[in-house]
Every structure is written in structure tokens, then in C-alpha cells.
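Supplementary Methods, section 5.1.

A reviewer requested that the exact input to the structure prediction be made available. We therefore reproduce it here, unchanged from the version used in the analyses.
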Amino acid sequence: MSQDITGNLADRLYELPPRRGTYKIFIGMAPGVGKTYRMLEEAQSLKQEGTDVVIGLLETHGREDTARKAMGLEVLPRKEIVRSSVKFTEMDTDAILARQPQLVLVDELAHTNVPGSEREKRYQDVEVILDAGIDVYSTVNIQHLESLNDLVYRISGVVVRERIPDRILDEADEVVVVDVTPETLEERLSEGKIYAPEKIDQALHNFFQRRNLIALRELALREIADNVEDNLEAIMTSPDQRTCSVHERILVCISTYPDSIQLLRRGARISNYMNGRLFALFVEPPDRFLTKKESLHIETCERLCREFNGEFVRIKSHSILEGITQVAREYRITQIVVGETHRSRWQLLLKGGSLVQQLVRSLPEIDLHVIATDRNGG
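The structure derived from this sequence is encoded cell-by-cell as follows.
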């Protein structure tokens, strides 16, 4: 008897917790772009390959194409909840956990559950499912991201009540943007493929105005670009590993010369024009102290960089070239801004060429901007 108990305990100790399920999110700029249809399409293909797929929650909103695409997939019944004599239905998370499929489809991720539910938000139900080792496909619109709430209001005048934390997108294993042009979306709306006929005119004159759709589309595409770039940054294991950046990254190389202020301003203009990120770099010689005037100048440059919403980088290195090269690779810089040389031709000959020439040889994949500056610091 004691041996059985000991054996069972040992078995339990060696049991590994279930792997977290993989998470795929389909995101779009607005209702009607085809997120749910695309999710169902992929689920049908996986079912044909032998994957055990179930629908945990599906909202067709009366769209016939979406309903047809779901045919043949197992649908788990919803849980009924009665509040003030009114019957509501929600996704039955416990039923999904008991069923243990390989993949579950969960539509409308930002949905708020009926008061009295075990969890407040549907995305919290999804996290429980993922923790049980079940893969999940979900759908969401860009306007439901928490950090974009104020911006979406400025764009559309609509206050989005149902929101999800940005981390949900960050933690997903894959994010797919389902994109159509604003013209295509307006056409779908006019044909009654998104809302009931009585709601079409109101939608076209409110949330679905062309200017709103263009701005929301840009938001969706930009958010996914940022997400991809962050993922690339996370897997970089060495500064020598190179990958292309989704956004331009502009590095302004400053020095103790007064013209650094001009360089920073020019770099900020380039950054704004290209919708890129701004960085400023000061390579400090480790074998000498800066004078008070030089220190104040570098502090001014740092303050100005932050006013331009840039990031100031300060490193010590005996070689300016090596310092710039190191930072350029580490921060995946795409454009470098430098000033014209202050050295004589004889000095350049002795040093093996100008800094610009050396940078071209060391960083051939990065564009260089050589800015003519006022030697007097004007």
C-alpha cells in the first residue's frame, strides 16, 4: 500500500505541466474586412490535414459567406447565464477544457463577458485555454487595443468601450493582418455584407467614413510592422547579426563641435519625414576628460535629442569608427547622419581616409548623410 502511494507521488512529481498552446490572432482595421472568414478558412484546411478543431465562439452577424465557411466544423454549445430574468449566452470555457481539442476558434477577442461570469473579458478565457495546452485562433479589430484608444477617438469620434491590453498582441505567437482597401470595405457595406440594410447609411456616415477607414488601416498595418520589428529585435543574439528594419532608424553622430546641434536638427527632420526613429550617439574618448564647456554642449545635445523624441546613446571607445559601427549594428540603424570633416587632407591621408569613407567601407548596407555645417556653430 505504501509503495503504491509512494509510486503515485513519484509519478505526479515527474509529470510535466502542459505546454502553453500556440496563439494566432487575426487583426483588421474594422468589422467586415474578413478576419473571421480567414480564420475559418485556415481552420478548415487544418481539419482536412487531421487537426482536431472546434469552434468555441463564433459570431457570423448574419453573414452568409461566414456561416457557410464554418460548416463541417464542430461547434461547442454556449453556456447560458440568466441575469435579471434575461437569458444570455457566453463561451463555455469549461466545456472547451473538458473537450481538449487541438485547436479552438474564438471570435471577437475584445468582448466583455456578462456580469457574474467567472472572468470579466473573453481574452482572459482564452488565456486559461492556452495555459491548458490548447492552441487558439482569435479575431480582433485594431481599435480595441488599449494604447490606441485615445487616438481612435480622435480619428473617428467613437469611444471604444471594449479593449484588450497591448500585451495580448505582443505575446501572440503569430499575428495576421487581414487587409482590404477602404473602397472594398465600403462596397461590402453598401451590398449589405457587413450590417443589416437599416444600419448601412448610418455606418457610412459615421465610423465607416473614408477618412476614418484610411487612418484605421494605417494604424493596423503600422501596429503589425512594429510587432514584427519587436519580434526580430527579441531574437537577435549578437550585434553582428544583421536584419532589415521595418522602419527607418536614423543615427546622428555628434561630437564636441558646436555644429552637432545642426546635425541633430537635420536628423530630426529626416526622421520625421521618413516616420522613423531618431538616435543620437556621442563616442567619448576614455583617455581624456571633457572640459566644462564640452560637457555642457553634450548635455545640450542630449536634451535636444529627447525633445525630438529621440534616444541618446553615449559610449566610451578609443575608436570613433568602431563605436559608431557597434551602435549601428546593435540598434539596427538604417541611416547615419554625420558632419563634414574638420581635418586637413594631410591628416586624412595619415588616418586612412575620412570617417565617412571608413563608414562606407564598414557599413555598406547603411545610407550616409554628410551634412555641410557652419564651422562657427551657427
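The mean pLDDT is 83. These observations are discussed further in the main text.
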